C-alpha cells in the first residue's frame, strides 16, 4: 500500500454534529403540495381581525375543506372577501347569486422590507 491509497480510506470518528443534519427546506414541498388546487394571492386591504395586512401573500387551497375558525376566501356578489369560516357560511351560500367559498387560506407570507 502506498501513500495515495490511504487518501481513499475513511478513518476516525463520525462528526458529533451528524445526527443534527437537517433536510434542506423546500418551500415547494412545504406549501405547494397540491399544485393544481393551490393559488397565491396578494391582499389588497388590511384586516386586523384576521391579522392580514395589505401586501401580504396568501396561499389558498381550493381543494381544502374548511373547518370552523379557518380563514376562507368567499365570493360574495362577485367580490372576494376574507373571513373566518363558520358552519353558518355554508347556509348563507346562495346558488342563485353565485356566492360560494372559493378556498381555504393555509399560509400567510409577509415580507419585511
What does this structure look like?
Helix content is 10%, strand content 28%. The chain is mainly beta and 113 residues long. It has a domain at 35-113: Umud Fragment, subunit A (Ribbon), CATH 2.10.109.10. It has a five-stranded antiparallel sheet, with no helix packed on it. Strand 3 and strand 4 form a beta hairpin. The longest helix has 6 residues, at 87-92.
What is shown here, in short?
With 113 residues, the protein is mainly beta. The chain has helices at 27-31, 87-92, and strands at residues 38-42, 57-61, 71-76, 79-84, 100-109.
Features:
113 residues; mainly beta; Umud Fragment, subunit A; 5-stranded antiparallel beta sheet; 2 helices; 28% strand; elongated
In DSSP terms, counting alpha (H) and pi (I) runs of 4 or more, how many helices? 2
- Beta strand %: 25-35%
Q: Do you know the CATH architecture of the domain at 35-113?
A: Ribbon
Report the sheet with the most strands, covering strand number, pairing sense and barrel closure: 5 strands, antiparallel
The geometry reads as: elongated
Low-pLDDT segments = none
- At the fold tier of CATH, the topology name of the domain at 35-113 is Umud Fragment, subunit A
Lateral arrangement of strands in the main beta sheet: 1-2-5-3-4
User: Which class of secondary structure composition applies to the elements?
Assistant: mainly beta
Mind telling me the C-alpha Rg? 24 Å
The termini sit apart by: 60 Å
Helix content: under 10%
Q: Would you state the CATH class of the domain at 35-113?
A: Mainly Beta
Give the mean pLDDT: 83
How many beta strands in the DSSP annotation? 5
What is the H/E order? HEEEEHE
Going by CATH, the homologous superfamily of the domain at 35-113 would be: Umud Fragment, subunit A
